[in-house]
Amino acid sequence: MSLIKEYIDRKLSGPDMEEELLRLISEYNALRGTYLFVYSAAIGKQIPGVSLEQSDFYIFHDLLTNRKDCSKVDIYLETPGGRGETAEEIVRFLHGKFEKVSFVISGEAKSAGTIMALSGDEILMSETGSLGPIDAQMKIGMSIISAYDYIEWIDEKRKEAKKNKALNPFDATMVAQISPGELGSVLHALNFAKDLVIDWLSHYKFKNWTVTESLKKTVTPEMKTERAKEIAEELTNHSKWRSHGRSIKIEDLENIGLKITRIENDKKLADIVYRIQTVCRLLFETTTTFKVFATQDNKIFRQAVPMGKPIQIPKMQLPDVVNIEQKCPKCGLTHKIYAKLVKNSKIDKDFQSKGYKPFPENAIVKCDCGLEIDLSGIKNQIELNMNRKIVFKSNKGETDEKR
Questions:
Q1: What pLDDT does 332 receive?
Q2: β-pair type (321-327, 334-340)
Q3: Which of 65, 113, 107, 109 is nearest to 88 (CA)?
Q4: Residue 25: how many CB atoms within 10 A of its CB?
Q5: Average of per-residue pLDDT across 169-177
Q6: Domain CATH for 90
Q7: Has residue 49 been placed in a domain?
């Protein structure tokens, strides 16, 4: 039976799925004898903060720094990539804190995610898991781009200019805006990512590689470094992979000399990992969550708060009530909501007669399409601007307040 269908048929709410995720993490820990940290991002959602960023490191540090009862940590990793410097900080923290660090890949771990995975003492992958070519993502102007793609474009324009003795006006304008410092930064970012992989492979992934498989020769530090350089060269060979977003599977990694633990070889483990992947994706599809940080003990879910229409404040009722028209970002249905700022039952009658519903106490509106819309940002905005708390039905002893 399809795992997605199973969970949909169970009609779990957002909080139910969060609890299911923590349950699965506990099962994983019991099976593997390790401590699992789930870091998963809603790849494909055009939301600032989906990529790996510095604030993510602080959450890794906060949730794991006090773990003194375990020596092994597994990181379930799904990310489109992001800051190489952040990847470095997370990896150095993990290896400084735990004796063994493993990465679990069942979805996509691209760019900086690939760099992190290659630092693992062990890499566990499912058939659906994939890494990507080694690259760095750079902020050029207002855009985040692949450093490799940027260098490749510049090289193409250089060859074109040499061949044609000129560039078209648009390309000439673009090239004229590139400073030597900016170009140097891009080249540095590429070399930085490559150097990290060489260092981490030789020190962590190859830590227990002591004898060659075929000739049974003793493996020296120099041999480990040389093998790490060969793998790094393969993974930075974009002409081979053709695309920054190319999926590099288990077979590809084994062919270039990496040892991968296949998750499907353990049916129980595979079931847990695929369930974790499914629950995370359902959270991304049916709630406003776009990034998950979770262990069996703690969870932090980052959510994107839809802006919706501007909050309208009726002139005659300025201190008493605020009405909101919140459009569902998934199906487009408009939810009419009112937030009371005083205990006044007349407000309920007036607004409910106009089709409005009271502001939900948990700040969550569940749309007919199944999406849970988080209004906590709007709640904070109302209470901050009005300098008063929203009044909910659960407040007992409501009496009319006259003005």
A1: 82
A2: antiparallel
A3: 113
A4: 23
A5: 64
A6: 3.90.226
A7: yes
